[in-house]
Each structure stands twice: as structure tokens, then as C-alpha cells.
Amino acid sequence: MFIAAEESAPSPLALHPAEVILACVVFLILVWLIKRYVMPSFEKTFADRTAAIEGGLKEAETKQAEADTKLAELNKQLSEARHEAARIREDAREQGAQIVADMREQAQAESGRITANAHAQIEAEKQQVLAQLKTEVGALATGLAGRIVGESLEDEARQRRTVERFIAELEDADSSAPTEGEAARQGG
Questions:
Q1: Coarse DSSP helix, strand, coil percentages of the chain, rounded to the nearest 5 percent
Q2: DSSP code of residue 13
Q3: pLDDT classification of 1: cutoffs 50, 70, 90
Q4: Which residues of 86-107 are buried (b: 16+ CB within 10 A; e: fewer)?
Q5: How far is CA 123 from the centre of its chain?
Q6: Cα 31 from chain centroid?
Q7: Alpha-carbon radius of gyration of the chain
């Protein structure tokens, strides 16, 4: 009995045309629905993603170009800053040398002024000593002349004339006396 039942039952692998047509219609409806509603969404997502990637690449290229420009600008500024620093150092050296030269000049001027003051002071002291010496020599000469002459030269006017005459004779004797070089030439 088992065998006879098997012959009358349809085969599970057998294709029925109605099922094939229905499956094809359902498949086509499913393809149409996917194409109509799902595919535009996928395409839009793909297009957005492609645009984002292309925009990102363009933006990256733009940023790279900007970065290169900024790097070149910074290198230029750095070079200018180095040149400016070198110029400032050179100016500082020149100013330092000028300050040293000015200080030397001031020191020399001060030295000259001090030397001139010292010479003037020495000359003043020399004149003072000469005047004092003339007075003392005059007094000694008056006293000596009074002893030699035997009369008093107490009279001030007479004393002054005598002293002046004596000093004038001494100065004439000094100016007419030959110097050492002249004496050597005359004698030799």
C-alpha cells in the first residue's frame, strides 16, 4: 500500500506553472518596489558619500595648498627676521664702537683740559714765585747795596728804583749770555 500511495501523490520537485508564474510576478513586484523605493535611497547615499569624499579630497588639497603657502610665508618671515636680527646686531656693534670712540674722545678732551689747567696753575704759581723771589731779591739787594754804599736805602721810592734797575740788569745779563748750544758752537 505504501507503494501505491506514492504513485498517486504529486512529486515535491515537480514544477507547477501557476506557482512559477506567481513566483515570477511576486519577484518582479519585489524588484520594482526595491528599484522604486530602496534604490533611490541607496543611490542618494552613494552620491552623498561620493560627493563628501570628493569634497574632502578637494578640501584637503585646498588645505594642503594653504599650508604650503603659509609655510612659504613663515619661512620668508623667518628669513626676514634673521636678516633683521643680523642688522640689529650690526647696528649695536657700530653703536658700541661709536660709544667707545666718543668716550675716548671725551677722555682725551678731559685729559687735555686737566693738562691745560695744570699748566695754567703751574704758570700762575711760577709767576707768584717769581714775584715773591723778586721781592726777596730786591730786599736782599737793597740791604746789600745799603751796606756796600754805606747809606741807608730806606726810602721806598729809591729802593724800588734800585731793585728794578738791578733786576733789569740781571735779565739783560741772562738774555745776552750764550746758551749751552751757542757756547759749544762758539767754543768748538
A1: 90, 0, 10
A2: T
A3: very low
A4: eeeeeeeeeeeeeeeeeeeeee
A5: 50
A6: 81
A7: 66
Average pLDDT over every residue of 40-66: 91
Whether 181 has a pLDDT exceeding 60, the answer reads: no
Q: Are 142 and 159 spatial neighbours (Cβ–Cβ below 8 Å)?
A: yes
Residue pointed to by grid coordinates 507503494: 3
Taking the domains of the chain in order of start, what are their residue ranges?
16-176
Indicate whether this model's pTM tops 0.90: no
Percent of the chain with pLDDT over 90: 48
Euclidean distance between CA atoms 113 and 138, whole angstroms: 37
Q: Measured between alpha carbons, how far is residue 112 from residues 60, 98, 133 in Å?
A: 76, 21, 30
* 159, 153 contact by CB (below 8 A): yes
Mean pLDDT of the chain: 83
CA angle 115, 120, 122 (to 5 degrees): 90
* Residue 159: closest CA among 187, 131, 135, 132: 135
